[in-house]
Amino acid sequence: MTMTPMKPMIKLLHRSPGGRPRFTRVTCLKRLSRLTRLLVLFLSPLVLSFRAGPQAAEPYTFGVLSQRSAVLSAQYWNPILDYVKARTGADFTLKLARTAPESNEATARGEYDFVYSNTIFLPKMAQANYQVILRPRDEAIRGQIVTLADAPIQSLKDLAGKEVGFPSLAAFVGYAVPMDQLLREGIQVTPVFGGNQEGIMGQLKAGRVIAAGVNSQVMKAFANRERLSYRVLWESVAYNNLPISAHTRVPPEVVSAVRDTISGMNEDSEGAKVLEATAQVIGQKPPYGFVASSPADYRNYVEFYAETLVKDIE
């Protein structure tokens, strides 16, 4: 049977030679439009039902006290937060301030949902409403005053009248603790600040400062990574390393899930691999990971702030 091509201009309906109606292009388009409307009416409840389903929650913010460069901090924390998201469904946005004082300002305003910082124990942070949930598994940190291995400085008294480096006014074991010791011994120095822990360590390495107040763990990792030899002139008592804390606005079930997931990473094969890989980024030695904790583990921080001679801590 030979089909006759449709003409561009046709009536709405033609009769075939046999008398049966023959649909034109316009008729087909109308019927297709009618069918489309029926499909829309049929599918609308399904679409609405889908839209009413679970929505992706806004990510929780995870603030990190500025100790290292933003690049190293991101390389360390993002894989851990990705692991937590995969296990709990809770999404995170990593927040990195340029300096420790900027980190503290954001923490004091309660901008972070979770925060990795030991400055939450400052008296001015009391209203920020953060509660410790985890602490690192590795050994406690200590405040140190260090110099290069070949430097002529032999004791703290040799620092009198000299420039000494510190991370910032916000650094607990890097500034508050060592400066408190210098004041108690009556040794006057001129503080020079590097912005964060590794910032001042870089200045020490370059010879721009003769000595520096540092976090013992960060200094050890920096020296291992940079192949730097140094001597410890003075060391403080031990303080538990920086905790992970949660703001009280975060739902308790989310806090529990995050705490349990992070504390269990070293017991999960995939989690252990993540911790080992991130530790290599910053030069950290085992043990890796975190354990469940509470404010009681950080009581000596509160006691220090109550008794310190240092009055310009930020």
Structure description:
There is one protein chain. With 314 residues, the protein is an alpha/beta fold. It has two domains: 60-139 and 241-307, D-Maltodextrin-Binding Protein, domain 2 (3-Layer(aba) Sandwich), CATH 3.40.190; 141-239, Periplasmic binding protein-like II (D-Maltodextrin-Binding Protein, domain 2). 39% of the residues lie in helices and 20% in strands. The protein is built from nine helices and 13 strands. It has helices spanning 25-51, 70-88, 100-108, 172-184, 197-206, 216-226, 252-263, 269-282, 299-307, and strands at residues 13-15, 21-23, 60-64, 92-96, 114-116, 130-136, 141-148, 163-166, 190-193, 212-215, 230-239, 244-247, 290-292. The protein has a six-stranded mixed beta sheet, covered by helices on one side. Strands 10-7-11 form a three-stranded antiparallel beta sheet. The longest helix has 27 residues, at 25-51. The relative contact order is 0.15.
Question: What's the alpha carbon Rg, rounded to whole Å?
Answer: 32 Å
By CATH, the topology of the largest domain is D-Maltodextrin-Binding Protein, domain 2
**What is the structural class?**
alpha/beta
Tell me the number of helical segments per DSSP (H or I, 4 or more residues long).
Answer: 9
What is the strand content? 15-25%
- Overall geometry: globular
**In what order do the strands lie side by side in the largest sheet?**
4-3-5-12-6-13
Total E-strand runs: 13
Q: Do you know the CATH architecture of the largest domain?
A: 3-Layer(aba) Sandwich
Distance between the termini: 92 Å
- Report the major sheet: 6 strands, mixed
H/E order of the elements? EEHEHEHEEEEHEHEHEEHHEH
